[in-house]
Design goal:
This protein is mainly α and 268 residues long. It has helices spanning 2-37, 46-52, 100-109, 131-150, 174-188, 198-204, 215-222, 232-254, 262-267; strands spanning 62-68, 71-77, 89-91, 96-97, 116-119, 195-196, 230-231. It has a 3-stranded antiparallel β-sheet. The chain has a two-stranded antiparallel ribbon with strand order 1-2. It has a two-stranded antiparallel ribbon with strand order 6-7. Strand 1 and strand 2 (71-77) form a beta hairpin. Bound molecules: calcium ion (2 copies). It is found in: Secreted, Extracellular space, Extracellular matrix. This is SPARC. InterPro entries: EF-hand-dom_pair, EF_Hand_1_Ca_BS, Kazal_dom, Kazal_dom_sf, SPARC/Testican_Ca-bd-dom.
């Protein structure tokens, strides 16, 4: 028991020493950085010197001009409060802050060294729909509709003819797939004018939809006559035919067979 306590104490000592050596290294670096600028204080604008001062300590701090003994000097400080000024910046961790002061305020609070990546909001790269994803999009969309119908989504009793057993989409008949597409068309066409406009399709797009970033390109391609409305005929043609074509190609390449419903055939 005594040995165990001694061991714990030793470990604690090693841990504290490691921490204090990191902390003192930070302080040392900070002092070196400040010493390097000292000869220029009073000769160069402190705001300019601030641009050159790297902040190690306190962790998360930024350089501000402060008065020390009547002299304006550059100093690394943690902001206690920040102006309301809106001048967004993006941190190296990809988070947008209202202004740079807020970035350092949080960095200090979390004791995390977080630098400025650039002025302005962080730019989130838009997902690009690859050709491969675009090809499989109709199939994935029908798969999703099938799942919604099995979950008893509103109006899904129109799809009663579709087996509720968890058979994959590829085992449905063409007619069943067509009905599935038709049912979803009815749900989306809220004003019942027999066409899906931009507003109807907007309802379809949300984060749970598979390959959501391919949606816009796909729906545009469904509008065969480019009148900005997708009719039922355009919809089913686009969805059912293309998902079948993709699946047959996919199966023949990946599985060495172009048969759609391998599972059922295997069961017989
Ligand atoms: Ca409509
Ligand atoms: Ca159209």
């Amino acid at each position: 028991m005594k040995m165990l306590v001694t061991l714990h104490l030793c470990l604690l000592l090693v841990f504290l020493q490691a921490r204090s050596s990191t902390a003192s290294k930070g302080r040392r670096n900070q002092k070196l950085a400040e010493d390097r600028l000292r000869p220029y204080i009073g000769r160069v604008e402190p705001e300019e010197l601030c641009k050159l001062l790297k902040c190690y300590k306190p962790v998360g701090s930024w350089c501000q001009v402060v008065e020390e003994d009547g002299v304006r000097v550059p100093k690394c400080v943690c902001p206690k409060s920040c102006p309301r000024q809106v001048a967004p910046v993006c941190s190296v961790l990809g988070k947008t802050y209202g202004n740079q002061c807020l970035l350092h305020k949080e960095a200090c609070r979390k004791r995390r060294r977080t630098g400025l990546a650039h002025q302005g909001h962080c730019i989130v790269p838009e997902a690009v729909c690859s050709e491969g994803e675009y090809g499989q999009f109709p199939f994935r969309l029908l798969d999703w509709f099938l799942l919604l119908s099995r979950m008893g989504d509103p109006g899904s009793n129109n799809t009663r003819s579709i087996p509720s057993t968890p058979l994959p989409q590829s085992c449905l008949s063409r007619e069943q797939r067509r009905r599935l597409a038709e049912w979803r068309f009815g749900v989306l066409d809220r004003n019942k004018d027999g066409k899906l406009g931009r507003r109807d399709l907007k309802k379809l797009r949300y984060k749970h939809m598979p390959l959501e970033h391919c949606a816009q390109r796909f729906f545009q391609s469904c509008d065969a006559d480019s009148n900005k409305k997708v009719t039922l005929r355009e919809w089913t043609g686009c969805l059912v035919d293309r998902s079948e074509i993709w699946f047959q190609q996919f199966m023949s390449v990946k599985m060495g067979s172009s048969k759609l419903c391998l599972q059922v055939e295997n069961n017989h």
